[in-house]
Amino acid sequence: MKKVFLFGALLCLVAVLAACKKNETAEGDATKAKVSHISYIDCKSHTDKLAKADPNFGDPDSVSISYADGAAHITHYNLLVNCGFEKGGIVVDLDINGSTLTIDEHENPDGPLDRCLCTTDNSFQIDNIPHGTYTLVFQNWYPEPYSKTVTF
What is the tens place of the pLDDT at every residue in 63-79? Predict the structure, then answer.
């Protein structure tokens, strides 16, 4: 009888620990996150020079991030892109590695490229993000990637 009781108690303990572990990993699990609602404005300023050779080109990058109803709303101001993006659009790729969301904003690869650069304001939404703390890494932040830790 003691063996049956101990075995039953052990099973209950395993079930409780498994449930606790499941609840711990559920918060902040962004594996189902996806990008939607991409919008942008036309080129704000143009240059025929390579932007890295002209440190005074345009305003510095900045970002606005808000959260509502399971979605992060992001606007990346002064994103540096090829001027041809106006004809092909902007693509936002999202890579998820644990609580790190890597955001890669770039010109549509099927669109035309021009011999100039410009800045634009690009807005998008990342859907299906549960409450938690995340590090957002913006790959195309000029002149090098930028990361920001946020809690939603």
Answer: 999 999 999 999 999 99
Instruction: Give the C-alpha distances (Å, rounded to integers) separating 39 from 77, 90, 100, 145, 151.
Output: 12, 8, 23, 21, 24
Q: Provide the β-strand partners of residue 71.
A: 68
Task: Evaluate whether 144 touches 39 at the Cβ level (below 8 Å).
Answer: no
Residue with structure tokens 């606790």? 20
| Dist. CA 62–CA 56, nearest whole Å | 16
Give tens-digit pLDDT for 30-74.
889 999 999 999 998 776 655 444 555 667 899 999 999 999 999
Q: What is the pTM of this model?
A: 0.75
Q: Enumerate the β-bridge partners of residue 67.
A: 72
Residue 90: enclosing H or E segment and its boundaries?
strand 90-97
Length of the chain as a residue count: 152
d(CA 119, CA 11): 60
